[in-house]
């Protein structure tokens, strides 16, 4: 079954969210402000999103009966992570509208399919090659050159499943260590900065982009974002145009994030697309306190069939992620004038685990690393 009629929720209706992490939690909180209920589906009993909803389903994504019961309880289904198993999405989509459309997952779960899709749109990416053996890796290296980045095609996030290959590295060993059957090799991009665009698209095809965000990673994990990005208006317009093109080509409903590199070229700086996230995104957390409408509210509005907002930024905004033991400083952050603290209610901090974030609106504050 497909749902050709557009979704139009009323206050009091229920949104099903697949995934119970902080993104699901912040989506549910935004929905609540608009008078909408959420039911969260997650296999993890300690899901931070469970804390903010009345109804939760704690079951595996392979549990067909649980999926069916969940679908029956809700009016529309969305997700907070891109690795939703295809079989689960299919079962749900037979019962309720799944937004963004589950077919989008096929493109964004596979780095090769994603890069091919972006290239077909005429949008720039790093040079890349499909690699499924050490022999192919050697061939790809001779075409693309070194340094290069090898990434598993599936299930990579926060730098997991990827390695930089440099001159002198042994491709056979790199391939063995990656322990995958399918990967892509990308040329290493000597970027000037990393940026992202958070875009929302409604069922009637309207797109609203937030101001371009500039991102800084530490150990492959996002540490700081600030908006607006320190780039020219023309480049920002180009970046937003790319995100809009991607959202429209996917016939997307909801919020997506497009991560991009800014690189120097003879004609001035240009942008290359690194990755598409079919969901709300960490680099858009500043919108919670730094704009009139957050990325979470935009997503809820889009999947509810409600009009999108026109987000107005309140000033320069910085977002600092509290990662692992950073969470131990939360009391200090609570005393910083102008800082808004968000804690995700997660269990013990582990290295690399996103535990919370802080937003600061106004003159860009000094960074606390
Ligand atoms: P990804 O998992 O693709 O989002 O990559 C995580 C981070 O690794 C990016 O935000 C970049 O900092 C870095 N990275 C990924 N791909 C490349 C590349 N082709 N060239 C240079 N840096 C990269």
From TrEMBL:
Keywords carried by this UniProt record: ATP-binding, Ligase, Nucleotide-binding, Purine biosynthesis
GO CC annotation terms, alphabetical: cytosol
Entry binding sites for ATP: 111, 151, 156-162, 186-189, 194, 217, 274-275
GO molecular function, one term: metal ion binding
Alphabetical list of InterPro entries matching this protein: ATP-grasp, ATP-grasp_carboxylate-amine, ATP_grasp_subdomain_1, PreATP-grasp_dom_sf, PurK, PurK_C, PurT/PurK_preATP-grasp, Rudment_hybrid_motif
Stretches assigned to the ATP-grasp domain: 115-304
Pathway(s): Purine metabolism; IMP biosynthesis via de novo pathway; 5-amino-1-(5-phospho-D-ribosyl)imidazole-4-carboxylate from 5-amino-1-(5-phospho-D-ribosyl)imidazole (N5-CAIR route): step 1/2
One example of a Gene Ontology biological process annotation: 'de novo' IMP biosynthetic process
EC identifiers of the protein: 6.3.4.18
Catalytic activity field: 5-amino-1-(5-phospho-beta-D-ribosyl)imidazole + hydrogencarbonate + ATP = 5-carboxyamino-1-(5-phospho-D-ribosyl)imidazole + ADP + phosphate + 2 H(+)
Gene3D superfamilies with a match to the protein in the record: 3.40.50.20, ATP-grasp fold, A domain, ATP-grasp fold, B domain
Any single Pfam family the record assigns to this protein: ATP-grasp
Quaternary assembly: Homodimer.
Function: Catalyzes the ATP-dependent conversion of 5-aminoimidazole ribonucleotide (AIR) and HCO(3)- to N5-carboxyaminoimidazole ribonucleotide (N5-CAIR).
Similarity section: Belongs to the PurK/PurT family.
Protein name as annotated: N5-carboxyaminoimidazole ribonucleotide synthase
Upper lineage: Bacteria, Pseudomonadati, Pseudomonadota, Alphaproteobacteria, Hyphomicrobiales
